[in-house]
Design brief:
One of its GO terms (molecular function) is tripeptidyl-peptidase activity. Helices cover about 25% and strands about 20% of the residues. It has about 575 residues and is an alpha/beta fold. The longest helix has 21 residues.
């Protein structure tokens, strides 16, 4: 488990030389204050900063090669996932890097604590006055105009020349908090809908989605899973609590073929909890739990509640939960997350650090799924823009981004489904052909509004409109890609159950399989709809991959065949 304490020792026992004497080199900077923030003034010299240092990983390139080797169906090593020790050996910083950074800390009277399993993240506390000296920075107070949120940040910082190649980044520095970063991506206000029978017939699915609808649409089996080692994890943030009584009501209404007492287990980190008060039942948490437990019949499901005692700063637990799972000897085979933010809210170096953590967990055999967002081409939630806004972490090439569809016979793209092209991450080879074909078909539409060479998302989609859930004992309806990610998580978990029962490995990192000929053939292509935003119609869905619904929606029977069952 990630340690939560921070150690500080003798902050003032040594006197630091001037920045010029230290030969400081500019490391990261912002050209301007992020939109929505204003400079309030200099930070108090006595204000304590909780800083994190990311050390350069020793051999990430080899880890990436191994990730693709074990995740590509045509590889001889497909499914031979790495152990905890093998992953840590590849990403642990070199002894030279550790010694160089620790020597610099000691020279300045500082002691840091390791906060990641591989030792590549350190944490320490320091007053603003000393941080300004250490990093030739100008830590100031910035205020978010709409919410009033205040943050101490700098627009640039430097590091000693001798630490270049050893120290990857200092955080939080130029990354600003995003007040909307972890709002549940439930698109519409919850609304009462008519009661349905416990097993809705497909005709009703045109207006209301229940587990029976998804079972019918995608061929999801109702037979119980048999493998206790196969686990599905649901992440929870911002005090969104999954209510057991609501789950019982949901199962009693929509899954009468399984016990309504079927439930989930709880894990917590960063001071997390899971209140069972009816008044604190979370719309997002209930949605995610009800459509994982309610679809992945008998798959052991874990709700991981991340509290507010973050060790990763503005990432607000996103890195903490991955380090938490990386520290486990047997992490879950699937992790679904229905939260996200705009890519432009964090620095490129920090985005890379989190993305690399996903690669580590993927190499261990975990499928990492994220809702793509609900703002169409305008980002994680609808906002004004002139150029298209990619979401994060959907732009990371080492996870699977899930978009949304709506309607039946045929399905069409949900207009809020976020999709597009990363401005940070290059297009990975596994999607080169599919994305190139789309860009050719798109022609000059939206020219100049997106990065044509960026990692494209989403990768896949499922239904995301008018899902019935139970909150505080009442049946309500919600929309969003946050409906789609847990749906896909349940499908992948049921595939993993069959694979493990057959003596095979779980699917792990999905994308090389999904973009393979066999994977694509097991999906239903969605060719209508679009995701408007930024005063445009956004991207149109087309034959093949598109940045609204990805490669299409799943077909369980075809996926079983594609994975060799």
């Amino acid at each position: 488990m990630v340690a939560t304490g921070l150690l500080v020792a003798s902050l003032f026992t040594l006197v630091l030389g001037t920045p010029t004497a230290r030969n400081l080199k500019l490391h990261e900077s912002r050209e301007e204050i992020p939109a929505g923030f204003s400079l309030s003034g200099a930070a108090s010299p006595d204000t304590t900063l909780k800083l994190r240092l990311a050390l350069v990983q020793s051999n990430f390139a080899e880890l990436e090669d191994k990730l693709y080797d074990v995740s590509t169906p045509s590889s001889a090593n497909y499914g031979q996932h790495l152990s905890k020790e093998e992953v840590e050996q590849l990403v642990a910083p070199s002894a030279e890097s550790v010694n160089a950074v620790n020597a610099w800390l000691t020279e300045n009277g500082l002691t840091a604590q390791t906060i990641s399993p591989a030792g590549d993240w350190l944490a320490f506390e320091v007053p603003v006055s000393k941080a300004n000296e250490l990093f030739d920075a100008d830590f100031s107070v910035f205020t978010h105009d709409e919410s009033g949120l205040k943050a101490v940040r700098t627009l640039a910082y430097s590091i000693p020349a001798e630490l270049q190649g050893h120290l990857d980044l200092v955080h939080p520095t130029i990354t600003f908090p995003n007040p909307n970063s972890h709002l549940p991506v439930v698109r519409s206000p919850v609304k009462p809908v008519q009661n349905l029978t416990s097993r809705a017939v497909p005709a009703s699915c045109a207006s209301t989605i229940t587990p029976a609808c998804l079972q019918a649409l995608y061929g999801i089996p109702t037979t119980k899973a048999t493998q206790s080692s196969n686990k599905l994890a649901v992440s929870g943030f911002i005090d969104q609590f999954a209510n057991s009584a609501d789950l019982k009501t949901f199962l009693g209404k929509f899954r009468t073929d399984i016990s309504s007492s079927t439930t989930f287990t709880l894990q917590t980190l960063d001071g997390g909890s899971n209140s069972q008060s009816s008044s604190q039942a979370g719309v997002e948490a209930n949605l995610d739990i009800q459509y994982t437990v309610g679809l992945a019949s008998a798959v052991p499901t874990i709700f991981i509640s991340v509290g507010d005692d973050f060790q990763d700063g503005d990432l607000e637990g996103f890195l903490d939960i991955i380090n938490f799972l990386l520290n486990e000897s047997a992490p879950p085979q699937v992790l679904t997350t229905s939260y996200g933010q705009n890519e432009n809210t964090i620095s490129a170096k920090l985005a890379n650090q989190l993305c690399n953590a996903y690669a580590q967990l993927g190499a261990r055999g975990t499928s990492i799924l994220f809702a793509s967002g609900d703002g169409g081409v305008s980002g994680s939630q609808s906002s004004s823009c002139s150029k298209f806004v990619p979401t994060f972490p959907s732009g990371c090439p080492f996870m699977t981004s899930v978009g949304a569809t709506q309607g039946i016979n045929p399905e069409t793209a949900a207009d809020f489904s976020s999709g597009g092209f990363s401005n940070v991450f290059a297009r990975p080879s596994y999607q080169s052909t599919a994305v190139s074909s789309y860009l050719t078909a798109l022609g000059s539409t939206n020219s100049g509004k997106f990065n044509t060479s960026g990692r494209a998302f989403p990768d896949i989609a499922t239904q995301g409109v008018d899902f019935e859930i139970v909150v505080s004992g009442r049946t309500e309806g919600v929309d969003g890609t946050s409906c789609a990610s847990p749906t896909l998580a349940a499908i992948i978990s049921l595939l993993n159950d069959r694979l493990i029962a057959a003596g095979k490995s779980p699917l792990g990192f999905l994308n090389p399989f999904l973009y393979s000929a066999a994977g694509t053939a097991a999906l239903t292509d969605i060719t209508s709809g679009s995701n408007p935003g930024c005063n445009t119609n956004g991207f149109p869905a087309k034959a093949g991959w598109d940045p609204v619904t990805g490669l299409g929606t799943p077909n369980f029977a075809k996926l079983l065949t594609a994975v060799g069952l």
